[in-house]
Specification:
Blueprint: E1 13-18, E2 27-34, E3 38-48, H1 57-68, E4 82-88, E5 93-104, E6 107-118, H2 122-125, H3 129-148, H4 153-174, H5 198-210, E7 215-219, H6 222-233, H7 238-241, E8 261-265, H8 276-280, E9 287-290, E10 295-298, H9 302-321, E11 349-350, H10 357-365, H11 374-401, H12 411-417, H13 423-436, H14 440-445, H15 449-460
Parallel strand pairs: 1-3, 7-8, 7-9
Antiparallel strand pairs: 2-3, 2-6, 4-5, 5-6, 9-10, 10-11
Helix pairs in contact: 3-4, 5-10, 5-13, 11-13
Length: 462
């Protein structure tokens, strides 16, 4: 062989993933920058089965290389993950690429984890972009530890790549439509009736709004589950509805982190086990609604949820770092305890706070004649009211704190001035404001919240 010939590239490892239904994802790739050969693809994941568009391995490799070109001089903080979005019209694809640094074969390399979709799926994918990116970011955190210790990162990445393929396939067929006909919801009934008791509907909607519009609806009857899912989605924006999913009649989907509302079917024994890690890693706290026994439970508010989430995330990564072999703790294992943090696995609690806003809305909406557009109009006015209250609350806090320059100390005055003396009303408006200004809960309640938790637990023990 002539000395001028470049070394042969080894064959790229490939995994075919069996996904039920049509998966809009064409492929996922893990690539890295080789100082001799340039961009190199280490692994390719492709969904198994018929696809509308097909890419050869060579085309997938070319697209993966495209995302790493120009990254050799990348300057970023240690541990940073850069998200890049490519639209290649000439190839008819979109590429979402997460660029990060990691140790591979003893050397520090620039790596890219990418997912490739047809350009025709752009409108479908965009509402789900944040969900996919946040999940991939966390698996990269675990993957970097695995790389640092010389373990197989592909096994770690597969733990999130495969579920994301399943998520996109399920959303393709069972996502909630952007426009919901009120006739398909509980709000169109002549009265609430035996199928959905007034107190249950009130508590479900109230808790749903208190947890920033994130809810899990479980049950044995798919029609009943989906009716409640559509009802709760009426209180979401059109973009948030695109990130919500109906349940599947013949089998149950898995719980997916990041969706706003999702319907889940119980198994033949009448039970459904929620994965602790995935629920805790949801961006907002969640409401759990069981339509079989009419129970509503919720997670703690945003500041407590964020606190528990970050503590657990550090605990999980610390446990992975302390492993002595690849088999000690599989990367998808729940970390039950750590030296400094023991998570409470019973994360769903009874709804603590009553409200007047939703109670009045439920009472009044059923006074309007069904079958007309009156109830839809009244619902729109109710949501507009909550939005205005949230904007007013934000402006009030800005003025009181000089736009965050000093701590907020007048919660009692806020509740009185804005007519939010009922705790449930305050929590609903705070949840709306949280989505407008992320971190509001932590700013208002951040320092004293642990004390308030202890006081609450002490009072509940009597």
């Amino acid at each position: 062989m002539s000395s001028g010939c470049p070394p042969q590239s080894p064959a790229v490892a490939k995994s075919e993933v069996t996904v039920e239904g049509e998966c809009p994802l064409l492929a996922a790739t893990f690539a890295y920058w080789d100082n001799i050969l340039g961009p190199r693809v280490r692994h390719i994941w492709t969904p198994k089965g018929d696809q509308v568009m097909f890419l050869s391995d060579g085309e997938v490799t070319f697209l993966a290389n495209h995302t790493l070109n120009g990254e050799i001089l990348r300057s970023a903080e240690c541990g940073a993950v850069d998200v890049k979005f490519f639209v290649l019209a000439e190839k008819g694809v979109i590429i979402v690429s997460l660029i990060f640094d990691g140790e591979l074969k003893g050397d520090k390399n620039t790596c890219a984890l990418s997912i490739i979709l047809p350009q025709t799926e752009l409108a479908f994918y965009l509402p789900l972009h944040t969900i996919c990116v946040e999940r991939l970011k966390h698996v990269i955190r675990k993957g970097r530890i695995w790389m640092q210790k010389g373990y197989n990162i592909i096994s770690v990445l597969s733990l999130e790549i495969v579920p994301i393929m399943e998520l996109l396939a399920s959303m393709k067929t069972h996502s909630v439509p952007e426009d919901i006909d009120i006739k398909d919801t509980v709000l169109n009934d002549d009265d609430i009736g035996d199928s959905c008791h007034e107190d249950f509907l009130h508590k479900a909607v109230s808790s749903h709004l208190q947890t920033c519009g994130c809810s899990i609806v479980v049950g044995s009857n798919p029609e009943k589950v989906n009716k409640i899912v559509r009802t709760l989605c009426l209180f979401l924006t059109p973009a948030e509805r695109k990130c919500s999913r109906l349940c599947k009649a013949d089998s149950s989907f898995k719980y997916d982190t990041g969706l706003f509302v999702q319907g889940l079917l119980k198994d033949s024994r009448g039970s459904f086990v929620l994965p602790f890690r995935q629920v805790l890693y949801s961006p907002y706290p969640t409401t759990h609604i069981d339509v079989d026994i009419n129970t509503v439970k919720q997670m703690p508010p945003c500041h407590e949820h964020t606190y528990n989430q970050r503590r657990y995330m550090r605990s999980e990564l610390s446990a992975l770092w302390k492993t002595d072999s690849e088999e000690d703790i599989p990367p998808d294992t729940v970390i039950h305890t750590d030296e400094s943090f023991t998570p409470d696995l019973n994360i769903f609690q009874d709804v603590m706070h009553k409200d007047t806003l939703v109670k009045s809305f439920i009472d009044e909406v059923f006074m309007l004649k069904p079958g007309l557009s009156l109830r839809s109009t009244y619902l729109a006015q109710f949501l507009l009211l909550l939005h205005r209250k949230a904007l007013t609350l934000l402006k009030y806090i800005e003025d009181e704190t000089q736009k965050g320059k000093k701590p907020f100390r007048s919660l009692r005055n806020l509740k009185t001035d804005l007519d939010l003396t009922v705790e449930g009303d305050l929590h609903i408006v705070m949840a709306f404001a949280e989505k407008l200004r992320a971190g509001l809960h932590s700013f208002v309640f951040g320092k004293p919240f642990y004390t308030s938790m202890q006081e609450r637990d002490a009072l509940m023990s009597f």
